[in-house]
Amino acid sequence: KQEVTQIPAALSVPEGENLVLNCSFTDSAIYNLQWFRQDPGKGLTSLLLIQSSQREQTSGRLNASLDKSSGRSTLYIAASQPGDSATYLCAPGGDSGGGADGLTFGKGTHLIIQP
Amino acid sequence: SQTIHQWPATLVQPVGSPLSLECTVEGTSNPNLYWYRQAAGRGLQLLFYSVGIGQISSEVPQNLSASRPQDRQFILSSKKLLLSDSGFYLCAWNLGPNTGELFFGEGSRLTVL
Question: Taking phi first (over 0 means left), then psi (-120 to 50 degrees means alpha), and beta for anything else, what does residue B80 get?
Fold first, then answer.
């Protein structure tokens, strides 16, 4: 069964800093990995989807990398802004995950960007 | 473009009462549909998924049930709510397993008193 760990669990930094959020997973036989953002009391917003054949994906100030063999992914946030404050979740997808989508979710990193 | 709607957004129900949460997807056909629950301090737990009309798979034994009466409609139900059913319920969809990006609705907050 896939297990996902996200480190750190919480992070508070001043505005403008570059950040790295870490995600590790136990079963490297994944098809893809997705990063989500969740604002308080809201649903999850998809940020980036990396297929297993890819090494990284970029969207604006966000860059996600995937090292499937070592079971790791990182989300890099450049020039952080107060609007980036949210909980960030990673979810690798594969046969050892649950359901038709095979995604297993980490508990997330709660990020606060201080103005 | 595709959109997903969930309602109601907030619900307060007494123990033993019935439940119906509804989710609809627009702008796509034959999506895979999912119900997740997010309890305070815990990760997302997959409850049910459906790959087609009338096809429901349950991931965990529980007091809830799901139905898919139409291609883009997914309903979460209970005949008698328990205190432990309280939580944040999220509906999601994608176009295929293993490669399809997963999209979530805004969620329904259920409090059972």
Answer: beta
